[in-house]
User: Fold this.
Amino acid sequence: MKPEPPPTGQTRPPDPSEQEPMLYCPCCDARLAELKCKLICRRCGYYMSCADYY
Ligand SMILES: [Zn+2]
Assistant:
């Protein structure tokens, strides 16, 4: 009796593009700063809350 190898191949490779939502300001294309549950554009003052994009 030999132990079966652990099932491999089911693990998904890490995808850095899905780590965190990188959102950009629709007004000025600056990157939004994440602040608690809001995304704020420091350039023009635009902001959106998490509830808006989830
Ligand atoms: Zn902006």
About this structure: Residues 22-53 form one domain.
